[in-house]
Structure formats: structure tokens, C-alpha cells
Amino acid sequence: MTVLVTYATHSGATLTLAETIAETLTAAGVATEVVDVNEGPDPSRYDAVVLGTGVRIDAAEKPATNWAKTHREQLSSRPMAFFTCSGSAADPAKGGRQKAADAFLEMLGFSPVAVKNFPGWVIMDKIPVHELLLLKSMRTPTGDFRDLDAVRDWAQELAPLLRKN
């Protein structure tokens, strides 16, 4: 069994989460390949898929959305898990919900075996200039909010779910 762990990222935080998920799955005896979604991985070559996306201004990264739309049929025919990475996911007022994830799942049209919204980072020197003004005007907290232990815990839960066929 081989699992594709694919991701879309703008600033690199989602890549770190994808790599952490892959390392944890590998340690649990699940072979993985980590591939940037921009490389156009073919999900039909894998037994299961984990797709992650950064969230930019309440929307999933366009490459992740386009890839999922293109491969919807293949994704729906095998175990698939989905995660987001966003600085706003650290906001306790959101209660673990992410508008971008909800919209992505509605577009997908089927339910993955697992969904998780992880905090990412808001590091101003990694943010495009046009987004800086908006984030500053909203007084967005800055920092690295990633919790790699929580990512590892979720990946441990994923291993048996991805093995189901």
C-alpha cells in the first residue's frame, strides 16, 4: 500500500505538515510519497490520498482546488483525507471550523475519511504584499502556531482509515 501525501502551499507551512504526516504514516508501516500538487501527481497510482492546502483569505489554495476537481473521480474511489493549514485556525472563536475547508468539501462532493484544520503560521515576511495590508488592517496575530504533535496524532489516527478499501 502506498499513500500519496500531496499539498498546496504558499509560504511553506503546509509542506511541513505534509512531511510530518508522511513521516508518521511511514513509522506506522504505511509507505508514502510526498508530492507538491503543482507537480500534478496522478492519484490513481496510489491506494489512498492525503491532500493538504494552505488557506489564504478564507479560501483553499487554487492549485489544490483545481487538482481535486480534475481528479475527483479517482479521489472518490479510494480512501482520502483532507487537511488545511491556516494562521486563522488558531483562533479559538472559530471552534476548529474553517470556512475554506467547508467550501472545499462542498465542492468535492463526497466525504473524506478524515478532515482536520491545523493552525499554520502568519509570518509577515512570507506573506505577499497585497495580503499584508489586509492582515495588518485586521490586526491579525503573527507567529508560528503549528502544533506538530497534533499533526502526528492525527496521522496516527489516519493510518487505519487509509488502509480500508
Automatic annotation (TrEMBL):
Q: Which domain of life does this protein belong to?
A: Bacteria
InterPro entries according to UniProt: Flavodoxin/NO_synth, Flavodoxin_dom, Flavoprotein-like_sf, Protoporphyrinogen_IX_DH
Which residue intervals define the domain Flavodoxin-like in the entry? Answer: 3-159
Q: Which PANTHER family match?
A: PROTOPORPHYRINOGEN IX DEHYDROGENASE [MENAQUINONE], PROTOPORPHYRINOGEN IX DEHYDROGENASE [QUINONE]
Protein name per Swiss-Prot or TrEMBL: Flavodoxin domain-containing protein
